[in-house]
Specification:
This protein is mostly helical. The chain has two helices and no strands.
């Protein structure tokens, strides 16, 4: 009985892992993430270069 619970537990963990890996792995979301990072860096540089 314990072995069945362990197998189910690890199968659930593998499912969650693959869902997390698959999320945001497409080119469109990667491009959006890159754009947001570039905007953040530009704003940070504007804020800290004026001093």
């Amino acid at each position: 009985m314990l072995i069945i619970f362990l197998i189910l537990f690890f199968l659930l963990q593998i499912l969650v892992l693959f869902c997390c890996l698959a999320a945001g792995n497409d080119p469109a979301s990667q491009e959006l993430s890159d754009r947001e990072q570039m905007e953040y860096i530009q704003n940070w540089m504007k804020k800290h270069s004026g001093s």
